[in-house]
Specification:
Number of helices: 6
Largest sheet: 4 strands, antiparallel
Radius of gyration: 15 Å
Length: 166
């Protein structure tokens, strides 16, 4: 649940939240010489209600999300398009945000569209409360907008969430 958790910690633990695993992907890309940045999105906390029905009361009303982008062949490519363009990926079905599939898992098979520029089954734009812009790193985003969960809430939340399968 710690958005600023070092990638080395995620590797050592062998597990992490969606965001921590996306940070790992960014680190690998930078290690291979691929520039990265993140798009900051402020999401409606109800987006996670289907996935965590018993924890609804603990989900904040607003969640800051760092959505990575990679500079490939001179163009910024969102993590959601690493496996194909949004038009092609929309055939992979809808991301329902239920069960064990996370956003990190979903990008392999389906479009994850925060802008509503593809088909309705891929459109997650209704959950976006604000586009916070682009940042050179996720650290810059969270330094400016803060982490979603403050430390006193993050510690027990992490204890609960670490028992769940990714």
């Amino acid at each position: 649940m710690n958005e600023k958790q070092p990638v080395s910690t995620t590797l050592a633990l062998g597990r992490g939240s969606c965001s921590q695993r996306l940070a790992l992907l960014e680190a690998v890309a930078r290690g291979c010489g691929v520039a990265t940045r993140v798009r900051g999105l402020l999401l409606d906390g109800r987006f996670w209600h289907p996935r965590f029905p018993r924890l609804r009361a603990l989900i904040p009303r607003q969640v800051v999300l760092a959505w990575p982008e990679f500079l490939l062949d001179g163009q910024w490519v969102a993590v959601s398009e690493l496996y194909g363009d949004l038009g092609t990926l929309r055939a992979g079905g809808r991301f329902t945000n239920t069960g064990g599939e996370t956003l990190f898992d979903a990008i392999v098979r389906t479009a994850v569209d925060w802008d509503g520029s593809t088909c309705s089954s891929c459109d997650l734009s209704g959950h976006v409360l604000a586009d916070l812009g682009y940042f050179d790193s996720r650290d810059d985003l969270f330094n400016e907008h803060g982490q979603t969960l403050c430390l006193p809430v993050r510690i027990p939340a992490d204890l609960i969430m670490r028992r769940r399968a990714a």
